Amino acid sequence: MTRVRDLSEDQILDRIVPLLPRGGATLLGPGDDAAVLAAPDGRFVVSTDVLVEDRHFRTRWSTGYDVGRRAAAQNLADVAAMGARPTALVTSLVVPGDTELDWVVGLAKGLADGCAPVGAGAVGGDLAGGPCLVVAITVHGDLEGRAPVLRSGARPGDVVAHAGVRGWSAAGLALLESGLVPAPVDAPTTGVPLEVADGVVLEDVWHRLVAAHLRPDPPLAAGVAAAQAGATAMLDLSDGLLRDAARVARASGVRLDLDPDAFAADRAELRPVARAVAAATGLGEPGWGPTPADVDRLADTWVWAGGEDHGLLATFPAGTVLPAPWTAVGRVVEAGETAPAAAVTVGGHAPAVSPGWDHFRA
Amino acid sequence: MTRVRDLSEDQILDRIVPLLPRGGATLLGPGDDAAVLAAPDGRFVVSTDVLVEDRHFRTRWSTGYDVGRRAAAQNLADVAAMGARPTALVTSLVVPGDTELDWVVGLAKGLADGCAPVGAGAVGGDLAGGPCLVVAITVHGDLEGRAPVLRSGARPGDVVAHAGVRGWSAAGLALLESGLVPAPVDAPTTGVPLEVADGVVLEDVWHRLVAAHLRPDPPLAAGVAAAQAGATAMLDLSDGLLRDAARVARASGVRLDLDPDAFAADRAELRPVARAVAAATGLGEPGWGPTPADVDRLADTWVWAGGEDHGLLATFPAGTVLPAPWTAVGRVVEAGETAPAAAVTVGGHAPAVSPGWDHFRA
Q: How many CB pairs (< 8 A) connect A and B?
């Protein structure tokens, strides 16, 4: 088994660089002091995001490929959220010397597969040793002559719309942390079988939710589609729907009122999973187990406050025909109209769950 | 004393973002999903570099400000080495929770001061917790209508030229590692006074060389000047003169023959420092101490193989009037002309010291 400490930086790069996609906007790829990218409209968008081992992923659950896919996806989503078309990314990678070379090769493949749907390139990087895995990506995009869609453009009367999944990543993480596994009830296993209803083991649910956590698949094309349809504000949902929606509300000086009915299907779908997780993790009073209210609260927390789905939230002028896959989930109202302190309300009321995720404190 | 774990990510950003320069090419600064930068000629250059605590810097020697200055400098040098004008950078920062907020604030100030000489902006970033400090920067630049200056353009007959300092960073690091300090001989101190000649303590030498290591000051304007003067190849010297010169030679299919006389002043200047470091660190035979040959070899190693000076190396057509601060240091010859195996020779011979620095193995 080859470990990275057995190779020089150049030898490692020789294994990685051929795996990386060039991308249509790349005028000069890896190998010089810098890459050269096209910016046909005379501007480009740029964003950076970092993933840290044991903060954002665990090697016990995530392969190198998973981390590459996830790192690409969450960065590309930031570009999409500006209404731009992703063009290329660069990667700074910190790896402990005892990391298997295959992990790093898998990361490169994951980056490549993450970039493929939008034709983005992976045009350069840096590699260093360190005490834990760190993947820092900077991504670029082309506005194609359009104005960037900011967080600050939402206006009272606009429709609030969403694209992507809701709560899946948080539910997938909860499944991994619970030890529930998608095995038949009577099979030998090191975990607890996931049985969500009357003896039915929902293997497909487990795989779908865990995959959503390990390899999120943001609706990248929805960003450009929203910009073309006249979106007034947009952002990537990385820290939870309520927390991120509040960012749009504050930047725009408005309130976002979300429609609870728009999320009913998500909550219903995740409730059996929440019941299994709650039971497996000992939620509720000792000796009694979780109540239906405990289960509801857990499912709601995933939907409203779960981070890292990397869906997109946008606002559109009233009457806009929403392009697929956007669906209406609420409306923009005057700040202070009914609930002065709240930037985000649900059916006119303060949200029942607390807003998610502070990346730094986590 | 405030530590970063006492604050949320947003609270930390509120302290940092106001310190960062906007930059002349910035159309939209920090605060949205991505920044928007101008690329007036329809292209931009991009490069990324990562600094890891205890690999690239030690908090015992480097303040946050030092690390910020250094991170900015080495990234901006990569843009300069393409013949581009640096426009803006983004930063992904990993910080342990017990890091003092002042360290992070210092880093932001160092980034700002590092960007100031070229008017570059600091337009965005990401912040995460982790087990050690990691500073990953991605930098962008404007080619202003010129072709990028690659490593592959050197042609036999070209002049090899250099801009910047040579060996200072390595000598500064050696001074720090040696425990030599710039105190008067008879003052109380925890280190060994640096006395380089007949009782004279060269305090200014210590400060200059240590500063060159902690806060390298690359000749950033020399990159654009070289491109305007018709440089055929160029690169940033981060891994040592011999190792980096070999990269130009291999990429161009030529040999670079360096003129030892061009480096005589550097070697002479660093030799007293090498003597002091050699004596303080026990170089040479036990009981005998370092010989003049040991001292010469140490000084030569700093000059020829010392990394992280971030000077620039370029080749120019013969007869080019070199713009300041470039000086001729050799010539480009046919590969295989006299020394088939060597990509770089010194006065026609294989170098006497081994080429520096493999960042990954270090």
A: 242
